[in-house]
Amino acid sequence: MFRLRSVGVLSAAKVFAVVQGAIGIVIGFIFLMFALVGAAFMPAQQRLGMVGMIVIAVLMPVAYGVMGFVMGTIWAAVYNLTAQAIGGLELQLDAVSAATYAPPPPYVPPSVAGA
Predict the structure, then answer these.
(1) Cβ atoms < 10 Å from Cβ of 12
(2) Which of 24, 43, 80, 106 is most buried, most CB within 10 Å of its CB?
(3) Burial (Cβ within 10 Å: 0-12, 13-18, ≥19) of residue 10
(4) Which residues contact 61 (CB under 8 A, 6 or more apart)?
């Protein structure tokens, strides 16, 4: 049995930022599809609002990434304080041997006909 007593605040924040940024890309893409469909059906005078939606869709991954970084920092800091008070998560880990593969056969160049 192992106990996780602390989490690196900066490393957790970076992981949260990357994961949330990836989610922001997916949600931004979906938002962008709705914006483009909406722009196709709008009269010419109202298309400026759709341009704003496209800009928002492009900025979503950045916003999600920043929020993920902030939330990761807060989560790791709160976890570390809680782990000091109650001892942290208990983990049960199993040792797994690395998969071994046979090495590839040595490269033998093809013979040239007539040589």
Answers:
(1) 20
(2) 24
(3) exposed
(4) 21, 22, 24, 25, 28
Nearest to 62 by CA among 18, 95, 32, 102: 18
49 token code pair: 């609002």
What are residue 91's DSSP bridge partners?
A: 2
pLDDT tens-digit series, residues 65-104:
999 999 999 999 999 999 999 988 888 888 877 777 888 8
Q: Which amino acid is at 61?
A: P
The amino acid occupying position 96 is V
CA–CA gap between residue 23 and residue 58 (Å, rounded): 13
* Residue 38: burial class (beta carbons within 10 Å; 0-12, 13-18, 19+): middle
Quick one: tokens of 20?
């949330």
Q: At what angle do helices 9-41 and 47-86 cross, to 10 degrees?
A: 160
pTM greater than 0.70? no
pLDDT exceeds 60 at position 115? no
> What 3-state DSSP class applies to 113?
coil
